[in-house]
Write a structure and sequence with these properties.
By secondary structure, this protein is α+β, with helices and mostly antiparallel strands. The two termini are about 30 Å apart. The structure holds 2-acetamido-2-deoxy-beta-D-glucopyranose (3 copies).
């Protein structure tokens, strides 16, 4: 779009080219973080449609989210960045960095649920074995809440956007593993070939990609079911991730976003049921969670089936089924969705940038004209 800009202006304005390039530089730099190598393309959540996380804290405020903290490096130690909450929704709380760009997401789960351990005994949830990544959060309405937090770039960049030394720049996925996210995090590999073999492939689901679960096996004690799962695309590139927790939370929030909920009858939707621990098949066992897309769900690379080369042992099953994303009113189907309007929004913002640039140049040339 900046190609051959001189055609727009009379020849004597060629002297102003340095100013022009200076302005170009400013705009390019300001919008730098919107480029795809710095930021995930999608950042959507599934309920019955594709709910987009607001890209900036301003967008979040416009959509009725409110900021939860004033200091980037919170004292309570639960996260870095500015956490935003929409009304009473604790399922998806976006986190923005010091510049107001989306930089992470947190989920809060209530500590008043009961579940099962490997001997089918009732235990309080969440189990201590999966803390971290689950961390103790605030008390809301006299219920102790627990949190899990993921960052979309290196945690050091959240409150210090100009940090450069010794860290991976650009987009990524980092799971917080302790009170200080700058040092306590798990970096998720961008490619499935770099995954530790403890991550086992499960089902491949169109628009979601191939699921990977950590250390899942028939012997896995149910109190150790890991709350993070990952999804990789046909090229083995990270495409989405999700939280999955044992339990059956009450959900009284007014939010549009809802947890997915699974029973032993619906595990096959995402799991390879042949490798699940027997304790998961207790009739009252429940799983709930949420999917978070990093790549667009309608990208051709997020289709299935996949051919797995690296892991001959992995036997992904193709059983797209239905899944209850609501509290039980509807059973949405997995169907391809039409392209969203993100591209047109991007085009609009680029157009505005161009118009602003040309206007600025006109002002500059007008002033120069007055002076000469
Ligand atoms: C992995 O699963 C085995 C049981 O299959 C369990 O004994 C072990 O503690 C688990 N390891 C981790 C790191 O969770
Ligand atoms: C737990 O319950 C499941 C399903 O009812 C059963 O298959 C399994 O054997 C039980 N495990 C124990 C240790 O009792
Ligand atoms: C979804 O919820 C409805 C109503 O509670 C229930 O009848 C149905 O079996 C559930 N479907 C699945 C796939 O769990």
């Amino acid at each position: 779009m900046y190609g051959n800009p001189t055609c727009l202006f009379p020849r004597h304005l060629m002297d102003l080219m340095p100013i022009f390039w200076f302005l170009v530089f400013i705009f390019v730099d300001v919008t730098k973080q919107d480029r795809s190598d710095d930021m995930w393309e999608a950042l959507t959540l599934r309920y019955r449609q594709w709910e987009k996380l607001p890209r900036t804290s301003h967008d979040a405020e416009r959509q009725g989210y409110t900021r939860q903290n004033d200091i980037c490096k919170t004292n309570s130690g639960n996260y870095h960045g500015f956490l935003y909450k929409q009304k009473d929704d604790t399922k998806a709380l976006p986190i923005y960095d010091l510049n107001g760009w989306i930089a992470g997401i947190q989920a809060m789960i209530p500590g008043n649920m009961k579940g099962f351990n490997s001997r089918n005994e009732s235990i309080p949830l969440p189990p201590i074995d999966v803390m971290p990544p689950i961390m103790i959060g605030d008390i809301i309405d006299s219920i102790q809440m627990y949190t899990v937090t993921a960052y979309f770039k290196h945690p050091k960049l959240i409150c210090n956007p100009i940090a450069r030394i010794g860290i991976t720049l650009g987009k990524g996925l980092y799971i917080q593993m302790g009170p200080n996210p700058v040092t306590m995090f798990q970096e998720i590999p961008m490619y499935s070939k770099d995954l530790n073999p403890i991550w086992q492939p499960g089902s491949c689901i169109p628009t979601m990609g191939l699921h990977y679960f950590r250390n899942v096996s028939k012997d896995l004690p149910c109190e150790k079911i890991y709350p993070v799962f990952l999804m990789y695309d046909t090229e083995g590139k990270l495409g989405a991730f999700g939280w999955s927790f044992q339990g059956k939370p009450m959900d009284v929030s007014s939010s549009q976003i809802s947890w997915f909920r699974m029973t032993p009858q619906t595990y096959a939707f995402t799991f390879d049921t042949k490798v699940l621990p027997t304790c998961m098949f207790h009739q009252d066992f429940r799983i709930f969670g949420i999917h978070i897309w990093l790549q667009p769900h309608n990208s051709p690379k997020m289709t299935c089936p996949l051919v797995i080369q690296e892991r001959p042992t992995g036997k992904p099953v193709h059983k797209p089924s239905t899944i209850n994303y609501t509290n039980g009113l509807e059973v949405p189907m997995i169907t391809p969705q039409p392209a969203d309007d993100r591209n047109s929004a991007e085009f609009m913002s680029l157009s505005w940038m161009c118009i602003t640039l040309v206007t600025l140049l006109q002002i500059v040339t007008f002033r120069v004209g007055l002076l000469s």
